[in-house]
From TrEMBL:
SMART domains attached to this UniProt entry: HTH_LUXR, REC
Residue ranges of every copy of the HTH luxR-type domain listed in the record: 157-222
Record field: transmembrane: none
Lineage, broadest ranks: Bacteria, Bacillati, Bacillota, Bacilli, Bacillales
Sequence ranges assigned to domain Response regulatory in this UniProt record: 3-119
Protein name: DNA-binding response regulator
GO molecular function, one term: DNA binding
PROSITE patterns xrefs: HTH_LUXR_1, HTH_LUXR_2, RESPONSE_REGULATORY
Statement: the UniProt record of this protein carries the keyword Zinc: no
Source organism (scientific name): Effusibacillus lacus
A single GO BP: regulation of DNA-templated transcription
Location of 4-aspartylphosphate modifications: 54
Pfam families reported in the protein's UniProt record: GerE (PF00196), Response_reg (PF00072)
Length: 227
């Protein structure tokens, strides 16, 4: 059973999501909140596995809420919900430790599958988001860095580290598609344990925090492509 907290400033959306997700056998909604600050307090009380977080809210928004939850409850994962593609906010939320994002108007089964993916250690990066990342990359390579464009959080490296092995490079590319270790293992015909070791090496060699940052790194440096 995956225990989740739903965060949205609109009561109709909170109630709707709670009703839909409560019908799913594998999910238990243990709390709701109307902004990021309240989300932190509810999460402290309920200790959920995952927080489903709206990105745009008055007061403490989803980016700030994500940072606070990841700092204070590092075992709790965050999945961002939005009604539109807001690249800058999404970039920032991912940088603060969110494990992906979804559009609110996606089918309930898609949201449930995304929750399961994140709970199992995966990353959720819809193709429309990755397309925007690639577009930002192309603009950034003309001179300005992503760090300059996005409030100091995203720095475009001029060259990739050379100490990644060929297999690590391929695993990194698959991370950019948001695949789990098992899915990567099946695709590359190697064991899940081997993938886990490669992911750890990649994170350490690139100086990243987790697999989410590795996935975004792969996309924004053109290692993972969606053409």
């Amino acid at each position: 059973m995956i225990r989740i907290v739903i965060v949205d400033d609109q009561q109709l959306m909170r109630d709707g999501l709670q009703t839909i997700l409560s019908l799913k056998q594998e999910i238990e909604v243990v709390g709701v909140a109307s902004d990021g600050a309240e989300a932190v307090e509810v999460a402290k009380q309920t200790r959920p596995d995952l927080v489903l977080m709206d990105i745009r809210m008055p007061g403490v928004d989803g980016v700030q809420g994500t940072r606070m939850i990841r700092e204070q409850l590092p075992e709790t994962k965050v999945l961002i919900l939005t009604t539109f593609n807001d690249s800058e906010l999404i970039f920032n939320a991912l940088d603060e430790g969110a494990s992906g994002y979804l559009l609110k108007d996606m089918p309930a089964d898609t949201i449930v599958q995304a929750i399961l993916t994140v709970h199992n250690g995966g990353v959720v990066l819809p193709p429309d988001l990755t397309a925007q990342v690639v577009a930002e990359l192309k603009r950034a390579r003309n001179g300005a860095s992503l760090q300059e464009q996005n409030g100091g959080k995203w720095q475009l490296l001029k060259e990739l580290p050379e100490d990644l092995t060929e297999r690590e490079y391929e695993v990194l590319r698959q991370l950019g598609y948001g695949l789990s270790n098992r899915e990567i293992a099946d695709r590359l015909v190697i064991t899940e344990g081997t993938v886990k070791n490669h992911v750890s090496n990649i994170i350490n060699k690139l100086g990243l925090r987790d697999r989410t940052q590795a996935a975004i790194f792969a996309v924004r440096h053109g290692i993972t492509t969606f053409e």
